[in-house]
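Supplementary Methods. Inverse-folding protocol.

Structures were first reduced to a C-alpha cell string of length 138. This string, shown here, constituted the complete conditioning input.
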C-alpha cells in the first residue's frame, strides 16, 4: 500500500499566522510554491494559504499585503492526511474536500505536503484521472 509518507514532498515550510501576506508571497516566491501551511506560535497547523488567496483577498480588494496577516487569510482549518494513510484515503480526502494539496501530519507534526502532482507521479493513470476530474468540476 502506498502511503502519504512515501509520496509526499518533505520539508514543508510554514508561514507563521502573524506574518504578513507580503512575507508569505516572498516565501512562496523563494520556495517556488503556490501554497504554504500556516502555523501558529505553537508550531501547530492553523490552515493553508495560497497565492490565489493573496491575489483575491488582498490585491483584488485593494488591501495592502503588508497590513494583512497570513492567519486572517488562511483557508479555515486545514484538511490534512496522516503520514501513514494510504492512497485510497488520500484520493478520498482530496476529492471530498476538493483540495489539490494536503498537509501530512505525523502526530501533531507537519512532515510534508501531498500535492496533486505527487499523486500524479505515484499512482496509476486511471486513479489520477478520476482525481483530476473530481477537482475540476464544481
Amino acid at each position: 500500500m502506498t502511503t502519504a509518507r512515501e509520496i509526499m514532498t518533505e520539508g514543508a515550510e510554514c508561514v507563521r499566522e502573524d506574518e504578513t501576506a507580503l512575507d508569505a508571497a516572498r516565501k512562496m516566491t523563494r520556495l517556488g510554491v503556490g501554497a504554504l501551511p500556516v502555523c501558529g506560535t505553537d508550531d501547530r497547523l492553523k490552515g493553508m494559504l495560497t497565492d490565489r488567496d493573496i491575489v483575491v483577498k488582498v490585491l483584488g480588494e485593494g488591501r495592502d499585503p503588508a497590513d494583512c496577516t497570513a492567519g486572517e487569510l488562511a483557508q479555515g482549518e486545514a484538511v490534512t492526511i496522516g503520514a501513514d494513510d494510504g492512497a485510497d484515503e488520500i484520493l478520498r480526502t482530496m476529492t471530498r474536500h476538493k483540495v489539490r494539496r494536503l498537509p501530512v501530519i505525523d502526530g501533531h507534526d507537519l512532515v510534508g505536503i501531498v500535492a496533486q502532482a505527487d499523486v500524479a507521479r505515484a499512482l496509476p493513470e486511471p486513479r489520477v484521472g478520476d482525481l483530476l476530474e473530481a477537482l475540476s468540476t464544481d
